[in-house]
Amino acid sequence: MEQHDLPPLVAQKADIHRFIAAVAGQEGMEAVAVVGTLGVRKGRGEPQPGLVVFIEWPDGAWWLWARPLRDRAIRDDLPPEIRAAWDGWPRPSGLGGFWTRARVEGLRLQRETVDGADELVN
After folding, report:
1. Distance between CA 91 and CA 62 in Å, rounded?
2. Could you tell me the pTM of the whole model?
């Protein structure tokens, strides 16, 4: 299992989708998961903060769990939303497609060790 913290990449305005696709493109990866606070849209309304767990497999199958937040706390008045590709749901906008992008663009996360520094990711 690997873990990559995305907030530093977001702060640098990095292409997060491309980064996750490069992670997916590594040999031996069995699944990719995105876990954290993201904008969750209910219907056509504005995105609201929510806790999200999104898992995608190499065959394009995916699973999503999302729970809306209010003032950084879980909303008890709304149940979690659970969706999956195998139930016929369309893939959530902005999430997934990581494996396809890795194959199409030939992406694979590369790592280097530099003297005096921790491992760097390219």
Report:
1. 8
2. 0.83
Contact assessment for residue 43 and residue 68, using Cβ atoms and an 8 Å cutoff: no
Q: What is the domain extent for residue 45?
A: 7-121
Per-position pLDDT tens, the chain of length 122: 788 888 888 888 989 999 999 999 999 999 999 999 988 877 777 888 899 999 999 999 999 999 989 888 888 888 889 999 999 999 988 899 999 999 999 999 887 766 666 655 54
In a domain, 2, yes or no: no
The rounded distance, in Å, linking the Cα atoms of 21 and 34 is 12
Q: How many CA atoms lie within 13 A of 23 on its CB side?
A: 23
